[in-house]
User: Fold this.
Amino acid sequence: MQQSLPGTRSVARLLGLGNRRPGDTLFRGITLLLVLFVVVIIAGVVWIIISNSMLTIQRFGFSFLTNQAFDPVHDVYGVGPAIFGTLVTSAFALLFAVPIGVGTAIFLVDFCPLAIQRPLAFIVELLAAVPSVIYGLFGFLVLAPWLQGSAEPWLQKYLGFLPFFQGAFHGLSLFTAGVILVIMILPLITSVSREVILTTPTAQREALLALGATRWEVIRHAVLPYSRIGITGGVILALGRALGETMAVTMVVGNQASPISPGLFNSGYTLSSVIANQFNEATPGLFFSAVIEAGLLVLLITLITNIIARILIYRMGRVGGLVA
Amino acid sequence: MAIQVRNLNVWYGHKQALHDVNLTIESRGATAIIGPSGCGKSTFVRCLNRLHEEIAGSRVDGEVLVDDVNIYARSIQPVYVRRHIGMVFQRPNPLPARSVFENVAIGLRLNGLASGAALKEVVERSLKQAALWNEVKDRLSEPASQLSGGQQQRLCIARALTIEPKIILMDEPCSALDPISTFQVEELIRELRDTYTVVIVTHNMQQAARVAEKTVFFLQGKLIEEGETGRFFSRPAMKETADYISGRFS
Amino acid sequence: MSALIERQQPAANPFQAPRTVHNARRRASNIAIIALSLLATAFAVAVLLFLLLYILRQGLPYINIDLFTKIPTPNGEPGGGIGNAIQGSLILVGLASLFGIPLGLFTGIYLSEFGGRTAIATGVRFLVDVLTGIPTIIFGLFAWIFIVVPQQGFSGLAGGAALGIIMIPIVARTSEEVLRLVPKELREASLALGATESRTILRVVIPAASSGIITGIVLAMARVAGETAPLLMTAFGNPFFNSDITQPVESLPHTIFTFAESPYQGQINQAFAGSLVLIVLILITSFAIRWATGGFKQRVQ
Assistant:
């Protein structure tokens, strides 16, 4: 056995290398190197985004978040309306996608005849596989004109007392972006909810059935309380997806500066659409940094929602049973 | 409260679990269903409250008459069958996040049978019947998951009793319990059998001998023998019964 | 004396539903929920079917050889095709695979074979999972800053790099899952026969998990074939055929993006045709994956 330098033995063991054949050490070494490379890439992505935002961070600080103007001419940048647009479209999407998604999951697990359950679930999952740009195409060419011509007037006529439905009609609007997002995050909510509902212990369902509960009562008193945490995790994952969605939203949201108002029929823009629209105009300096900082914000909010969602889904695995 | 089973055939998908079962169970008293693992005793009992059909791909053929009414008749909904035929399961299954009180009360609430003061009265009475009241009277608002295994099982029994079922089915109710809790539950069964028709599935022959007046033996989905418990164990009529009792297979 | 309301009105047949308001309400709620959840499911299914059929209808008439072999005409003149986009997508996905598959696969190997439950492996796994949640435009920004800006030009290389990063977690996760499923006995048998650890992994474990690994790779490739956002600021776009990856490269999703908003009907038609091609590709891979994982077999030697 060769003598190795003091300390290298423990380092080697830590890395998983050790008393092995040279072929193995080589293989392990290559594997570890590649994994290290992956970690470096991830860290690199984050670091590059942060460091290239520093200019505008230092210049504007928090006012970047509230400034209404993204003004290259005067070199003043703010993403207030973009943040507003991102939040509004995502909130709108959740508002409708959650009941529809959870409802679909409930139907698939509890009411759907067994034979068509898997095919139907597969079809709903296919919605998730459709590329974002195709949703954008569909939204731009089909949905937007239709919403402008039919849905928006209808909503204003019957629900016009709500500030959301007031104002001029635009096809390319926050409203259309919201509707497209509903369709895009629906499959995620459905599949997570479905998986979670499927894990509800039969014992709890049977406890209620044995007392003469109807299907809905079993769902209400056994399934939903058990699944609540996991479903919430899925919803937050979907929120993250909506917050970061770029192409479909960019193509339908209008990309025009409107003053921030509750009117959903106005055009607007989101953080990611700002990036998509402005990157090619971006001159080095503040403009460039502003675009990157918008990216940093997207990165931050999606990371946070992702981590929260994972914690919830992880907790789901440990909660929800008896300690008998 | 009498049960009459006629030509019962039951399937899980393509696999037949029960073959042509015919059995009469008198009103009141306890009947034990025994047999080796996989003989169909649990399946049988779950057909008595139409719980078996909740399993995807299952099929039931035949008649089960309770007080001369076929519970499998087309005009009858399973929900209202189960409301009158209570069940206690192998592993205690209270709703974990709910309080002790709410767990017992839920049957009453779902079926709209009582509310307010009357509800409280029924809950207390059922808990006393289940010999659990003294242990939980000061813990009614605690989550049910805090109780011990034996207490949870008695909770489940109390829960079943609140809605005054005609029949109480028990699927190996003591197999997850320690000896003392088992003793308490068996005591309970001996009390309940004076008022209710109790059908208890058990793999423990001594338990059958202790709590049931009548015993039924299943093997591979067929009813082999039934009879008064004393005679059943001392002079079994069928060879298979004798083999099982003497432990030649289990 | 029973305190229960029901008993005060005994029904002739005790198993019939008691005719009370309460029970009527229960029945109504039950039916309402069935109806609502059915409606929700119908909505989801209807949307997908409508989308697919609409694209089929609008795009099918324009699927022809020209679509794949010609490049776009200037100023919206009739004719032409999106051959440059098809070629570009093939190049970009190929480049991304070159980059993403080895990195993803070896990360999967590490997590399954070497890392196990160590703290480092858990950390790596967490990072990889986090990677999947990052919107793809961020990787475009990364490649933009890292490659495009210093090179002072858009390039297929930058696009491929961005897409490659997207592939890594998909390949890593599916590979890890599938490698874990390979029975311990198989590894032990190989080691007992005298094979080294690396030989065992390369010659025994990976082949046993090969169909699952390939599934993961196909999944990742289909995913990035549809990505647009990261390509906006990296590969950018190119109206001509181009196989030089140091230059801008067109891609199918990018063409769909630009043509959808075009003032020329001819280009809009081609956008639909291109979408149809892309969707068919996605559908084929989705079904193929479904079929493959449905009959997931392991080779036991």
User: Anything to note?
Assistant: The longest strand of chain B covers residues 15-25. The longest helix of chain B spans residues 116-129. The CA atoms of residues 135 and 151 of chain B lie 8 Å apart. Residues 95-164 of chain B form one domain.
